[in-house]
Design goal:
The complex is a heterodimer of chains A (621) and B (310). With 621 residues, chain A is α+β, with helices and mostly antiparallel strands. Chain A has 21 helices and 21 strands. Chain A has a 6-stranded antiparallel β-sheet with strand order 9-12-6-2-17-16. In chain A, strands 8-3-15-18-19 form a 5-stranded antiparallel β-sheet, covered by helices on one side. The relative contact order of chain A is 0.08. The longest helix of chain B is centred in the first third of the chain and has 25 residues. Chain B has 2 domains: 181 residues, Immunoglobulin-like (Sandwich); 101 residues, no CATH class. With 310 residues, chain B is of the alpha+beta class. In chain B, a hairpin with a 6-residue loop joins strand 9 and strand 10. Classes of the chains: A alpha+beta (621), B alpha+beta (310). Chains A and B meet through helix 5, helix 6, helix 7 and helix 18 of A and helix 2 and helix 3 of B.
Chain lengths: 621, 310
């Protein structure tokens, strides 16, 4: 198949529909692919003219029915995708291809709406450039004319100008629309732990959030805990957030305090992960609430990227406890409670909470649990505590919390992440889905909520080595039917380095472009320009100044470079003119020099020198 | 509608008579791209998406950049000389134009347009750049005579869409170049020929036979030979041998189409007589050309024909 502009249109529509897979309803993708296939099958123009409006209006009705409104981005993106596939039906004339280019450009920007990442943006630009190249090709342009130099002359000032406009264009609001589709919410937001559903773990290396600004020398990055969500309620094998009304003002932090920025990149964002210990969020691009249990939650669940700045006191721990917290932290409804208590106490008496706590830790150690990514499914938490052999962090945290409550120790489960990968290219920490972790916080009257990680007791390597390395040691082989392939064979250092470099690029791009908001813009403008100048005036000024500057750039680029010998000869001509001798157009240099020498014999030598220098440089080379 | 606006604009500008002014207007593609810019700006603002805004600004700035590039692709282009040869109706000749440039970027995909009632022109695109040691460029632009008479080619339009076809930059160069469109050189009816003055008489038997030329008197045709051989031969009297052939024509009572047809035949005859090396003269209603034989004479005759009743 020869690659031409028509085939390229098909390829781009299909690629974009595949990129949008999972973002828009499958039915829209089916309509798109069917429409694309029909462009091959439907021959007669009249038949096409009848079916086209049917598909178009049918799609509009369908989108209204599915999304309830056209204003959610998914509805708009779906419509543009269907429109692009319909445009494939009429790619005959040159103008059709240009119209297709415009629709594809619109489709690319739709991709940026749903998948705002550097790679998607970069690939989108690349696709558009390639498509435009083919548009120029069908216009019979001699494309060799668009060589590197000319393209640089055209593209460089345009890119600089566009960046200037981008940074000065006034951000009136943080958007007029709620960019989430209410129907898609809550699928995947993990605010509960159902013990019965805990099965084998699939490890995903997808980045959940990245942290910028933490000093790797100051912090033991692989050992850090990132708290996200607190689970209080235990009812029928399920741990839940509890919906406690603990909303409060943020608290002052004990020193030392570390500042860093978090960029959250989950599919659906509700909880804001922070470094374990006491923390305050100082700035966020979306509104959030603080809960005195030590968690931060967005006011509205969103699909868009969240960025916020945090101050953390890693060494400290949360101390607040209210009656409701105490009640929730101790509540345990279980038929097996007495039996487990008997087993745990074993006729002993405990002086204080610390001894109770130690008894639970000892019980845990005695049970000889094993860490595994493929545990069996247990009927109940009690079943696991009494007879279970293997599990992972969620099993251990849930069991430890259960035992603590049996012993009347207030406890809560903290779900979040542990560890992370340090990226030396931009000094950021990447926390991935495979770093997800659970631990518990036990309340002691004198110390407050103290973190305890039961997994560290069972499998210290999981905490010390980090999830990635530990799991690789745990499962060093990839199972391929009956064969086992060592995972180490598939690891290449340069691939890891390249992916870290790309990630740092993505982070930097996201920070400088995607998350460039009103506040940062005002800060930038106030740093660059005198105070009391509004953004509108700054933008108008940049636009007004840039256009002449751009013109000047082209003017200088198109200016003919005058040779130094020619300059010298021009000076000579000027001098002669001041002496009353002007060179006629019909005169050659030598004839003019003879005329000059006749009129000004006293300057003969000078005239002779200048003329011969000019003639030598231009005619005898 | 856009075409109408564009035509009106061009006519207005054309009649301003300002030479060297460079105009630039967006093409339909350019306007479509501008609309897309507007849509993307709204999307970017409504959904507060910086990628869409940046993409939009890049497209917009490339649009502005291409405007400047198109402008500079035509800027500093000057017309050094222009020449055109006379042409017969329906035949093609070349308008020779020499352009000079002072632009380091060169000039690419420059198009020439001519709007003239008497001359029809095709499309021509040319490029030249200073980099290739080509400070000037000689263009042979084919034009076709479409109406008999003296054509004064006042102006030509030079335009470009380079590099992205989003803008059209154009300018006018004053030529004031006169050329003549001669009648079509075509023998329409060999027997319906022009009356030739044949006043002199001599010895009717003292003749020799020569090939028939249109314009020869029908009375001199050797009909007997024609019947025998099927070939037209004319009796050339020795007494009249030195006398020039005098062509005469009057359009009185003729329809315009008939007149043009007659002029075509005269034109053809003139060439035939010239090729035969004969002396010939031309007498039209108010104009007459004395008998003679030279290229200049032929040109004078043809010019008289071209200017006849125009």
């Amino acid at each position: 198949m020869k690659l031409n502009v028509k085939n390229l249109s098909y390829i781009l529509v299909l690629i974009n529909s595949l990129i949008l897979f999972g973002e828009i309803p499958v039915s829209v993708l089916v309509i798109t692919w069917t429409t694309t296939a029909l462009s091959f099958l439907l021959g007669p123009q009249t038949l096409r003219a009848v079916i086209k409006p049917v598909i178009l209006f049918g799609s509009l009705f369908f989108l209204k029915y599915h999304f309830k409104t056209y204003l959610v981005p998914e509805a708009g993106v779906s419509f543009v995708l269907i429109l692009a596939s319909l445009k494939l039906w009429e790619l005959e004339k040159e103008s059709d291809h240009f119209n297709m280019f415009l629709i594809l450009a619109l489709l690319e920007s739709c991709l940026f709406l749903l998948k705002p990442s550097f790679m998607i943006f970069f690939l989108g630009m690349l696709k558009i450039v390639i498509f435009f190249y083919y548009i120029l090709k069908i216009r019979n342009y001699d494309l060799s004319l668009l060589n590197v130099k000319r393209l640089l002359i055209l593209v460089t000032p345009s890119i600089l100008f566009s960046l200037l406009l981008f940074y000065t264009f006034p951000r009136f609001t943080s958007g007029f629309m709620n960019t989430t589709n209410p129907q898609l919410l809550f699928s995947g937001v993990d605010s509960q732990l159902n013990f019965k559903k805990l099965g084998p773990l699939n490890l995903s290396s997808k980045v959940v959030f990245r942290v910028i600004g933490l000093n790797a020398k100051e912090f033991p990055i692989p050992l850090l805990y990132w708290r996200e969500n607190i689970l209080w309620d235990y009812y029928k094998e399920e741990w839940k957030t509890g919906y406690l009304n603990l909303r409060s003002e943020q608290l002052p932090l004990p020193k030392p305090v570390s500042s860093y920025r978090v960029q959250l990149e989950k599919d659906y964002n509700e909880f804001l992960p922070i470094l374990d210990g006491m923390s305050n969020i100082t700035k966020s691009n979306l509104e959030f609430n603080f809960f005195s249990e030590g968690s931060f939650r967005l006011k509205n669940i969103t699909k868009s990227t969240v960025s916020y700045e945090v101050n953390s006191s890693y060494e400290s721990n949360w101390k607040i406890i209210s009656p409701i917290m105490m009640r929730k932290g101790l509540r345990l409804k279980s038929d097996m409670k007495d039996k487990i208590e008997e087993l745990l106490v074993n006729g002993r008496t405990f002086k204080d909470d610390q001894e109770k706590f130690q008894a639970i830790v000892d019980f845990f150690k005695d049970r000889d649990f094993e860490y595994t990514l493929n545990p069996p499914t247990y009927n109940s938490l009690e079943d696991f505590i009494l007879y279970g052999k293997s599990g992972y962090c969620s099993h251990f945290a849930a069991a430890f919390a259960y035992l603590s409550r049996v012993m009347d120790l207030p406890v809560r489960i903290v779900s979040g992440y542990q560890g992370g990968e340090y990226n030396p290219f931009d000094s950021s920490v990447l926390v991935r889905e495979l770093d997800a972790h659970s631990w518990v916080e036990v309340y002691f009257k004198d110390r407050g909520w103290v973190r305890y990680d039961p997994t560290a007791t069972i499998a210290p390597g999981r905490i010390q080595l980090g999830a990635n390395v530990f799991n690789e040691k745990l499962e060093p082989y990839l199972n391929f039917y009956y064969y086992k392939l060592p995972k180490s064979l598939l690891k290449f250092r340069f691939v890891d380095q390249a992916s870290l470099w790309l990630d740092s690029l993505n982070t930097s791009f996201s920070y400088n472009i995607l998350n460039f908001d009103k506040e940062r813009q005002q800060q930038l403008i106030s740093n660059l320009l005198p105070k009391n100048i509004s953004l509108g005036i700054a933008f108008a000024f940049c636009l007004g100044v840039s256009l002449p500057v751009l013109w000047l750039f082209f003017f200088l680029a198109s200016r003919t470079r005058v040779n130094k010998d020619e300059k010298r000869y021009n000076r000579f001509l000027k001098k002669m003119k001041s002496m009353g001798l002007q060179k006629e157009n019909s005169e050659t240099a030598s004839i003019f020099s003879r005329r000059c020498m006749l009129t000004l014999p006293e300057h003969s030598e000078y005239i002779q020198n200048e003329t011969s220098s000019y003639i030598n440089s231009f005619y005898r080379s | 509608m856009l075409t109408k606006v564009q035509t009106n604009f061009e006519e207005k500008v054309h009649n301003l008579g300002r030479q060297g002014q460079l105009y630039i207007v967006p093409t339909l593609d350019g306007l479509k791209l501008l609309c897309l810019n507007l849509i993307l700006l709204i999307i970017g603002l409504v959904y507060a998406n910086n990628y869409v805004l940046l993409f939009n600004f890049i497209l917009f700035c490339l649009f502005i950049g291409s405007m400047y590039y198109t402008h500079f692709n035509l800027r500093n282009l000057s017309l050094a000389s222009a020449r055109i040869n006379p042409v017969h109706l329906g035949e093609k000749t070349n308008l020779t134009l020499t352009f000079k440039s002072k632009s380091a970027l060169g000039h690419h995909f420059i198009g020439i347009k001519i709007k003239h009632h008497a001359l029809a022109a095709g499309d021509l695109l040319f490029s030249f750049s200073l980099k290739d040691k080509q400070p000037s460029c000689k263009i042979e632009f084919p034009v076709e005579g479409k109406k008999r008479g003296v054509a004064n080619l006042k102006r030509i339009t030079v335009e470009t869409y380079f590099p992205f076809h989003l803008f059209r930059a154009f300018t006018y160069f004053d030529l004031n170049l006169k050329t003549i469109v001669y009648p079509e050189k075509k023998l329409l009816d060999p027997f319906k020929i022009i009356e030739i003055a044949d006043e002199k008489t001599g010895n009717e038997d003292d003749f020799y036979l020569k090939n028939f030329y249109p314009g020869d008197s029908l009375r001199r045709i050797h009909w007997k030979k024609y019947a025998q051989t099927g070939k037209l031969l004319t009796k050339q009297l020795f007494a009249n041998e030195e006398l020039p052939v005098q062509l005469g024509f009057s359009s009185e009572g003729l329809l315009p189409e008939q007149k043009e047809k007659e002029l075509c035949s005269i034109c053809y005859t003139l060439y035939e007589l010239h090729a035969a090396g004969l002396h010939y003269g031309l007498a039209l209603d108010k104009t007459s050309v004395e008998p003679g034989h030279s290229q200049q004479h032929l040109n004078n005759c043809l010019r008289a024909l071209a200017e006849y009743e125009t």
